[in-house]
Amino acid sequence: VFHAIQCLPLKFHQEKKSGDLLIRITDDVDTAIGMVFNILPTIIIDGGRFVIILAIALSINTQLTVLALLSVPLYIIEAKFYAGKHARVQEEQIDASSRIYSRANERLGNIKTIKAFGQERRETLSFSMLIRRQFRVAVKGRLLEIMQTFTNSITLQLWSVFLTWYLGYQVIQGQLSIGEIVALMMYIEQLEGPVHSFIGLFTQWKTNVVSLNRLEEVFEYPSEESKDHGA
Question: Distance between CA atoms of 227 and 231, rounded to whole angstroms?
Fold first, then answer.
């Protein structure tokens, strides 16, 4: 990525601030690497766990297992709703951080001029405004996480109440025994772990796509080397 950025034409460097380029080289690359290392273990471990537990639950009672899994689409809809919001917050966080890095790089590089004109206090106040903006974005992201956790728990509780009522009704009707319910609920609860892992992976993917797009922009932008070969 560093080499690709160096090979980009001067126009690209004039359009982007140094802080933005620094984040592409560091944070965006770390995000891309982290995604690769997170995807495979989640698919292999949680995917295999989900298949095994689902097979056992289906062997106990197919109808009730399918009924319990009907809550999954609700989680998917909820995840898609919040994933877009997380992505927008991620864009704001990257922009806020790039502005801070750019300002620090520019001002520290010209510290002699700043001290010569006695502008230390003015520059500190200007820099503090960028810090406050970054703090507001961080708070916004945290509140979004809290809201998602809250709505997720509400969805889970409502569906659990409905499922418990239905299972109790089946016991009264003589369709199920207490032992079958205990065994079935034990396996259904174990399905929640893999489901939440997949939903978390989807949300993380949608959020981290912001960094991937920024890296893609670097590699797809016509470089000076490609122009030289074309000539």
Answer: 6
**For the chain, how are helix, strand and coil distributed in percent, rounded to 5?**
90, 0, 10
Distance CA 78, CA 89 (A): 17
Is the pLDDT at 202 greater than 60, yes or no? yes
Lowest mean pLDDT among 43-47, 110-114, 156-160: 156-160
- The token pair that represents 132 in the structure block: 């406050």
Domain boundaries, the chain: 17-219
* Residue among 102, 110, 108, 126 nearest 15 (CA): 102
All residues at 6 or more sequence positions from 110 whose CB lies less than 8 Å from its CB, including other chains: none
What is the rounded distance in angstroms from the CA atom of residue 136 to the CA atom of residue 84? Answer: 19
Of 88 and 186, the structure prediction assigns the larger pLDDT to 88
pLDDT at 226: 57
d(CA 27, CA 57): 42
121-146 in b/e form (b: 16+ CB < 10 A) is eebeeeeeebeeebeebeeebeeeee
Find the angle CA(151)-CA(157)-CA(158) to the nearest 5 degrees: 90
- Is 17-219 a domain of CATH 3.40.50.2300? no
The answer to whether the CB of 191 falls within 8 A of the CB of 49 is no
- The average pLDDT across 100-125 equals 90
